[in-house]
Amino acid sequence: MRVAVLTSGGDAPGMNAAVRAVARAAFFRDWEVFGVRDGYRGLLEGRIYPIDRRGLGGILHRGGTILGTERSVEFATPEGQRQAAGRLEEVGIDALVVIGGNGSLTGALRLVELGVSVVGVPASIDNDVCGTEAAIGVDTALNTALQAIDRLKDTASSHHRAHVVEVMGRDCGYLALMSAIAGGAEAAIVPEFEPRPEALLLHIKKAYDQGKSHFIVVVAEGAPLSAEEIHEYINGTEGTYDARLTVVGHIQRGGIPTAYDRILASRLGTAAAQALADGDSGTMVAVRGDAIERVPLQEVVGGERELDPELYKMAEVLAELPE
Ligand code: F6P
What we know:
By secondary structure, the chain is an alpha/beta fold. 42% of the residues lie in helices and 19% in strands. α1 runs parallel beside α9 and α5 (138-159) packs across α6 (174-183). The longest helix is centred in the middle third of the chain and has 22 residues, at 138-159. The structure holds 6-O-phosphono-beta-D-fructofuranose.
């Protein structure tokens, strides 16, 4: 069996650990392993190369992806997809493992529809992939966002300021909500729930009047009320905190993957090879509770991941946001 592996979309810490796990589990079965450079774009261009055991050395703990990644516009077209499938056939690849987020897994499904044998592995810092409780990279990104919040709290308290912190997540508020809870932020603004600017302002003023030394608002980048707007809103209001704005940005994408992400990637990568060994295709390996399961790509791509309203409510209660 000849297996190829690619990483696609936004890089996520732990992708290398997943590549390593797929390859090692393949070597264990005496399969040949190939890497595809720069995601679907590399596939289209036939940049497929053999990977040996030495090529996997020292990558488990490295952030980013040694294979390279891209968001390919060309591959999004039916012609691009046909071309990519053709490349795999030319090189004699029997199966492909796609490691990436929603866009990448949609691409995987398109290849399956063209008769390619594909298994997906969820990797995206946003935690917006349906069918899995966690995607590779989320835990590391969350801890990075949390570290930023902790540091900002130090300076906020020293200067008696408000800090508005924008975290990543595209259309998903997971990173914002979880980092706000873990960081003890005074408010979290996320795309999934309608913001309440009046209650927020009341909350800020009350905290200021009561002498609270800092006020931290975590805002998801896709929230209906942007971090910039909230920052202006606070600074435009008399008798409250002086506010500063911080965008954590791509710092969240890099860095050494946490133990959780390395273990998750190792489990999912190994499970992807097992799925191929079982003759499976068109599925994504996923974590659900303690188990690793297989979910049809169709369900993954068609679904929408919800943000737990109970957790959102809990964040409001813990921050004592007025009703
Ligand atoms: O999907 C991961 C992500 O980091 C999102 O959180 C963010 O919206 C987007 O990618 C940024 O993309 P780019 O790296 O292309 O600017």
